[in-house]
Amino acid sequence: MPVAADAQVRVADDPSAASPVGQIAWLLPAISLAIFALKPLGPVKDPDAYWHILAGEHLLQTGQFVLADPFGAATDKIWILNQWLPEVLMHWAYAAYGLPGVAWLLCLGSFLVGLAVYAACRRRSSALVTALVLAVVFVALTGSLSPRPQLVTFALTAVTTSAWLLTRADRRVRWWLVPLTWLWACSHGMWFMGPLVGGAVVLGMVLERRVTSRELARLTLVPLLSVIVSAGTPTGPLLFASPFQVHGVTALISEWQPPGATDPALIAALLLIVVVVVDQVARGSCDWTLALVTVLALVLAVSWSRTTGLAAVIMAPLAATAIQRLTGGICFRGGRRERLAVLVSGFLSLLLAGVLVPTAAARPALGPNGLDAALGHLPSGTVLCNDQSDGGWLMLKHPGLRPTMDTRVELYTVDRIKAYLGFMAADPGWQSYLAHVGCSYALLPIDAAVLPAMRATGEWSIAGEADGYVLLGSKH
Predict the structure, then answer these.
(1) Which of 438, 476, 439 is closest to 458 using CA atoms?
(2) What stretches of 16-165 adopt beta strand conformation (E)?
(3) Side-chain half-sphere CA neighbours of 323 within 13 A
(4) DSSP 8-state secondary structure symbol assigned to residue 473
(5) Can you give the pLDDT at residue 1?
(6) Would you say 118 and 132 are in contact if contact means Cβ atoms under 8 Å apart?
(7) 2: pLDDT strictly greater than 50
(8) Residue 101: which of 394, 361, 369 has the closest Cα?
(9) With contact defined as beta carbons under 8 Å apart, do 365 and 99 qualify?
(10) 58 domain-assigned
């Protein structure tokens, strides 16, 4: 029987020889992918989604990829639209179908992420093992499956990792990874994961003495050219500066903190890593490529909550290979009925999501929607002190207003963010924040610590109250 060189597991073409469990296992990946498509269904609750929609609209209107922020009242840095491709798609969905359109786009994006992981795992493991790994990856990604461009990174990381593992096996140069990285660099700020994974695999192949000098030169060109062509995106060389905009403020952002020891996403990612390590120990060998990729995934898993799910995506094909090898089962290639099941599952799941989403996502899951009328009566250009999570909602639903804080943290200095946090906590000197940003109204959660402090000054009066929020207006 043929052997998959990158997986080193037994592969057969005839699924009729499968065990009784294998006779129904072909359905399991389709079920897992249906969960990927349907579980995220619901109202749009990610604060970032709202300003991503607005970014796509503004780009289509102005053609500006690098601009001074026209929406916030207290931003300090230029806005680099390095995620413009999915932002335009989000705007189109919103323009055509409102927030339900954006919510359905999330279902589609989540399904495509699952499909990419499925394809990466299935060529290396049985349907049963693939479904198991898919389930673990889904747990690792649960907190990250939101209507944001990061879905592109999850999907393309699975594609790229699988491609480089195949290159390790057959030493073929996959030049198509270069234009794929260009598209990736137009879609999300973590596009560099592609060249990074590629570099780790190439280095591993060198240490394993798998390549000649000529082959090494050709293989090295792929991650190198991928980085070079990324400078040719519409944002230009500023693309390379955009990750450093957020670097100074990561200590103030929850998703850039290490995950907790009991975080289900971390446990899921570490489980995949442990499986690969156990497999290497059982074999009595340590492949450099697997070791380097595993270390990369481990760093991503434990360093930042935002990248824990990404670590699981990277480890998925390696874990699938390891489980298949440890169990000693035959990996039957996916037959027509399995492919049909996956296709039908995706179609029906997305169709069902389309039927349910007008009701499930009719209203935003954040923001004081009951104060829309009061906010609509404020003069255009009004500077509004607000809770950070509502900034994008305000910019999209009330474009005439200018909120003083939102989740585009890369546009704010550390001092500005600290001043905002001090204001919300009513720390001594909180009044200076009001003076610096110049707000004449404030929209705050009813439990905000600064709310009673503002009212106690006698300079602010209630202009509206709804949905757990209070709208205050200055008397001056």
Answers:
(1) 476
(2) 66-68, 78-80
(3) 25
(4) E
(5) 29
(6) no
(7) no
(8) 361
(9) no
(10) no
Looking at 330, 355, 380, the residue that finishes a domain is 355
331-332 and 66-68 strand pairing: unpaired
CA distance linking residue 145 with residue 106, whole number of Å: 8
Amino acid occupying residue 471: L
Range of the domain at 167: 3-38+82-355
Q: With 60 as the cut, is the pLDDT of residue 425 above it?
A: yes
pTM metric for this prediction = 0.93
pLDDT of residue 14: 44
Closest CA to 432 of 464, 467, 395, 385: 385
pLDDT at 345 (0 to 100): 96
Q: What is the mean pLDDT of residues 99-104?
A: 97
Cα dihedral 180, 185, 191, 195 in deg (nearest 10): 50
Residues 151 and 228 in one domain: yes
Instruction: Return the closest-CA partner of residue 36 out of 107, 126, 90.
Output: 107
The answer to whether residues 148 and 289 belong to one domain is: yes
387/276 same-domain check? no
Ramachandran region, residue 381 (left: φ > 0; alpha: ψ -120 to 50; beta: rest): left
| Residue that terminates a domain, selected from 355, 377, 397 | 355
Using the structure block, give the residue that is written with the tokens 């389309």: 354
Mean of the per-residue pLDDT values of the chain: 92
User: Tokens 């090898």, residue?
Assistant: 325
Q: Read off the pLDDT band of 352 (50, 70, 90).
A: very high
Amino acid (1-letter code) at residue 412: Y
290-340 pLDDT, tens digit per residue, is: 999 999 999 999 999 999 999 999 999 999 999 999 887 666 676 889 999
CA dihedral 160, 162, 168, 173 (to 10 degrees): -50
Q: What is the per-residue pLDDT for 251? A: 72
Does one domain contain both 312 and 338? yes
